[in-house]
Amino acid sequence: MRVVVTAVGPNNWGLADRIVHYLTSVGATIAEMQMYDHAAEGVCALMLRCQWPGRPDTLAELRARMAEVGAGQGLSIRTWARNGTGPPPRIVLCTTYRPEPPLAVLRAARDGRLRATPVAVVGNRPACRGLAEQFGIDWHLIGDDQGVPDNDRLVRILDESEADYLVLARYMRVLPAAVCWRFAGGRIINLHHGLLPGFPGAQPYRDAFARHMLTYGATVHFIVPELDAGEQTIHQDAFTVAPGTPLEEVTRLGERENEPRCLVEGLRRVVDGEVELHYHKVVAVRKAP
Questions:
Q1: Could you tell me if 214 and 240 are in contact, meaning their C-beta atoms sit under 8 angstroms apart?
Q2: Is 2-82 CATH 3.30.230.10?
Q3: What count of other Cβ atoms lies within 10 Å of the Cβ of residue 252?
Q4: pLDDT at 52
């Protein structure tokens, strides 16, 4: 069973020692370990991915031991297990204005096309509140009057809802690195409304149109703290238009048809265990024969 342990806190020597020692002492096989120092935010972080030798019911003991380590060193530690034979993963959708991508995910989960359980919709704007009410799941507004999000509250929502994945469904805010590291290891999935790496930024339709492109698209990718780390693409969907198609029609096709379809397929690849994030790169998962 794949287990990811993250630890975030003030910079301190020996941050990884007790975590690594315990895991190796019980026979866990460490496959990846990364440490990150965010001097500007005064944050030091660890992400460790390992193969857990115990049964799923022994994870409670692992979490308890990691909580002890965190309390002793002033660290915020999370232990997350990906178990393909267990219940469907729990997802939280994060939104700003556009309802089409989160609606597509909620419908796909309801209809059984996506093996996931949406447990909450979070917004820095109130535009998608009705979606949560329509599907009978929790709604949380974390933005102020200017749409500035309360990121500490977002972290609490993810923890309290026991979310496996945070899905940024056209969420138009950048997550701070401290949030990314708390849920590192492939737990944050973003929909970008442009084809990466060619068209990043907030206006990819306009940027592609200005370069007279006839092919547009969307990208689903894992989030890592470094925005330009690259190689995190899970899935891309593209569509073509005829020469002379106005920008308004390009945008309509992208927002209402292509983006929702792209997000559902990208998320399906993750929850079905077809892809994982290893060392900031998306890799295909080999299925046992």
A1: yes
A2: no
A3: 12
A4: 86
**Owner of token pair 């309390």:** 71
Instruction: Tell me what pLDDT residue 109 has.
Output: 98
Cα 137 versus chain centre, distance: 19
90-284 architecture in CATH? 3-Layer(aba) Sandwich (3.40)
79 touches 5 (CB < 8 A): yes
Cβ–Cβ under 8 Å, residues 254 and 218 = yes
**pLDDT at 227 > cutoff 90:** no
d(CA 252, CA 248): 6
Mean pLDDT (the chain) is 92
pLDDT for 229 equals 54
Tokens 């500490």 -> residue = 152
Domain range annotation of the chain:
2-82, 90-284
201: its two tokens: 């930024």
CA 20 – CA 28 distance, rounded (Å): 9
